[in-house]
Amino acid sequence: MVQREAGRVNKDEHFELLRASAAEVKELNERLQGIREQEAVLQAERVAKLKELEKARSTRFQRMTAAIGDGVPKAQVARELGMDRTNLYKLLDGQG
């Protein structure tokens, strides 16, 4: 055992401090791993939702152009879609 001097600790106290530090690091690493796993799940969900959004937008565009093709006024189509006419025209100019 190391003799205690001003500011010094004995071996057992060192071991206790080292174990506490190791436990803290381990706990933080486990928490970070849990966060990474949650992020992966959320990222997969985000990708799936983006694909759904792309499909929904494509369907909306097809229905919008069909309605306009059948003579429904563009202003009314925009209103029914809940969008500004300017955005409708931009969609039509960009073709989806």
TrEMBL record:
Q: What is the name listed in the Swiss-Prot or TrEMBL entry for this protein?
A: Uncharacterized protein
| Keyword Coiled coil appears in the UniProt entry | yes
Per UniProt, the keywords (alphabetical) are: Coiled coil
Q: Which residues form a coiled coil?
A: 18-45
Source organism per UniProt: Lentzea cavernae
